[in-house]
């Protein structure tokens, strides 16, 4: 079962992105083999959008899964929309292309469909992905993000990546790129945390006005990885309003949480290792939420982040001090 025609969104560069993506992030202690198995299941049940990143450390396994599903005839390469991301230690222009080439080598693919600047926060370049000083404090760097963007544009022109975008950027940081002299390609999307407790209404309105897509991650809450997650945060899928609507519609809370974002024009990324959940999370095209149900879920917004990355909040480019 492949995704149906209406399950794609047109990007501002003319390419199409499937509106549901399969996320592959997992806490460090999760065996990498799980990423391979779950991506294979995802492709078998109909996902065509796989979201990954260099820093997840599993591009080798994700690439193996994609290639195995291509060789057994489940998908063709052109059916798969693969996203990767530029890590924060590779933002200096001379490191952008080598970073992409490193991912392509791990994946054993010829191109990446969508490549994002993972975060506006930059760390000191080098082999250490989380460089720290003698006091254990992260060492920052300060490349002009517009120079990083220019290097990305060159990689798009070289055919290494098809579309380019950003992740975790605030409005000002996006406008910096949009207003830069000699801009060749606008970001196609901004991938941000988005769910009923952080509905990103202002960011969504801003992005739509610029022809940029909002891609939501942690749409079902979070994997509760202690390294990133805010402790004591509520479990999103236990939300009473969400559960009430799900019960009434004969759906799972996860399906309702995803459908809510989808109906607002947001691309949703969901992840699971359970084949049954992987399948069920894709089944959100055959029902609609009413206006009242959307309003009810809108009222759940509390501007709460599961992933606030507070360990970086003293960085000059920390994005979450701004309203959006």
Textual characterization of the structure:
It is a single chain. With 324 residues, the chain is α/β, with parallel strands linked by helices. The chain has a single domain, classed as TIM Barrel (Alpha-Beta Barrel). It has 10 helices and 10 strands. It starts with 7 loop residues before the first strand and ends in a 26-residue tail after the last helix. The model has no long low-confidence stretch (mean pLDDT 95).
In CATH, the homologous superfamily goes by the name: NADP-dependent oxidoreductase domain
CATH architect. name: Alpha-Beta Barrel
Q: How would you characterize the largest beta sheet?
A: 8 strands, parallel, barrel
The overall number of domains is 1
How many DSSP-defined strands? 10
Low-confidence stretches: none
Envelope shape: globular
Query: What is the beta-strand fraction?
Result: 5-15%
CATH class: Alpha Beta
**What is the alpha-carbon Rg in Å?**
19 Å
Distance between the termini: 37 Å
- Strand and helix order: EEEHEHEHEHEHEHEHHEHH
The main sheet orders its strands as 3-4-5-6-7-8-9-10
Structural class: alpha/beta
Number of helices: 10
Classify the fold: give the CATH topology. TIM Barrel
Task: Describe the structure using short key phrases.
two-stranded antiparallel ribbon, 8-stranded parallel beta barrel, alpha/beta, globular, TIM Barrel, single chain
Helix and strand arrangement:
Elements: E1 8-10, E2 16-18, E3 20-23, H1 32-45, E4 49-51, H2 59-71, E5 81-86, H3 93-107, E6 112-117, H4 145-157, E7 161-167, H5 171-178, E8 189-193, H6 201-209, E9 213-217, H7 240-249, H8 253-263, E10 267-270, H9 275-281, H10 291-298
Parallel strand pairs: 3-4, 3-10, 4-5, 5-6, 6-7, 7-8, 8-9, 9-10
Antiparallel strand pairs: 1-2
